[in-house]
Amino acid sequence: MRVFKFGGASVRDAEGIINLHNIVNNENDRLVIIVSAFGKTTNALERLHLAWRCGDPGFQSLLGEIMSYHLQVTEKLFGNISPVFEMINAVFREFADNMQSGKPDDFDHDYDMIVSNGEVWSTMIVEAYLRSRVMNSKWVDARELIITDKRHRDAGVLWEASQHAVKERITFNEVDLYVTQGFIGATAEGEATTLGREGSDYSAALFANMLDATDVVVWKDVPGIMNADPDWMPSAVVLPHISYLEAVEMTYSGAKIIHPKTIKPLHNKKIPMLVKSFTDPGGAGTIISDDAPQGDMCPVYVKKEGQILISLIPKDLSFVMGDNLSRLFYMVAQSGLKVNLVQTGAVSINICVDHEEPKISEVMEEMKQDYSILYNDGVEMLTVRHCTDEAAKTVAGTREVFLSQRTRNTVRLVVR
């Protein structure tokens, strides 16, 4: 049994869904297919959420665009008088009615209630198409399978409850192929939650672990995991085989090819992951596994944008180590902020975090009680793994460097 995950780029239009069918149709194994929201639908739903919260009447036109996009894809696959078209139309009408009658509540709660629908809509359409091509498939709702805590936008998975639900519902007794959603889950009470941005890879790893899959294949719009973003460094090359540890380090540093939480559930059961191109299914791609070749690797460059560098000095000039550091880390952990770099001095702390609003403003306001604060927003964190002197110079260039940090084989720079 295998798990296939298809990202939003691979199902951005009807042609992409037809291509998904062709890839799946060539498989003889039983499959669980995880599908992301179509194209840039998650971005569009995030804009919809903000417009709705602000009372912007323009949210109606945003909703109309999202609805039209999905109905156009559905019409190309099934025609405009098909039961599937009518079903999707009805789903959108209900969603629109709920938005019209609903009132804004907690920001993160509302985000999950709205944004989680992208994966629901995409999987309904994909599974209906597979079934129409005489595939023995079934749609299942991840909100009934991945049970989480109540932390919206970055929910923690309740493992025992989720494993029980997954094994109870995904049995392969009557079907050979299940289609479900990445990125989303729900609390025990049934409220939708999300697992963190780009969390569909993590979902695939969870299903693979709970179902003891032989492997996970992540289908992307790139030929595999590369040693740099080719849009940033055109000379980037594919890494044919990397270890779980290397993958963790790359994703933690900001490499967008897979979600940072993905590796642990796979590593725990030694399940390999393949990253392959959906436009070249026969290509080798990249393998992530426990038996990656040892030896020197080429430098790996990672750029993480949307960062803020915060410098803190205790107002009483007390030493950083001990109570100061533990209190600060507790505060940041409770907020759900993603800390990417920490550097301390005797009475100073520098942290580089994802600039997520409103979280960052709330945390900085709380920090002001005990710390003097300086910050630089709009910065980037650049990481070079397996760094050479030449690689370090290449990545820094003429950029303004606010902070640098070097370990045995890794350099991190916070730059503008």
Main features:
VC0802-like; Carbamate kinase; 8-stranded mixed β-sheet; 6-stranded antiparallel β-sheet; about 425 residues; 17 strands; globular
Can you walk me through this structure?
The protein has 2 domains: 2-289, Acetylglutamate kinase-like (Carbamate kinase, 3-Layer(aba) Sandwich); 300-415, VC0802-like (2-Layer Sandwich), CATH 3.30.2130.10. Helix content is 38%, strand content 24%. It contains 13 helices and 17 strands. The protein has helices at 14-25, 41-53, 59-78, 83-101, 107-115, 117-132, 159-169, 200-211, 244-253, 263-268, 323-335, 359-367, 389-396; strands at 2-6, 31-35, 137-139, 147-148, 177-181, 184-187, 192-194, 215-220, 241-243, 273-277, 286-289, 300-314, 339-344, 349-354, 371-385, 401-406, 410-415. A hairpin with a 3-residue loop joins strand 16 (401-406) and strand 17 (410-415).
Helices and strands, with pairings:
Blueprint: E1 2-6, H1 14-25, E2 31-35, H2 41-53, H3 59-78, H4 83-101, H5 107-115, H6 117-132, E3 137-139, E4 147-148, H7 159-169, E5 177-181, E6 184-187, E7 192-194, H8 200-211, E8 215-220, E9 241-243, H9 244-253, H10 263-268, E10 273-277, E11 286-289, E12 300-314, H11 323-335, E13 339-344, E14 349-354, H12 359-367, E15 371-385, H13 389-396, E16 401-406, E17 410-415
Parallel strand pairs: 1-2, 1-8, 2-5, 3-5, 4-6, 8-10, 9-11
Antiparallel strand pairs: 6-7, 10-11, 12-14, 12-15, 13-14, 15-17, 16-17
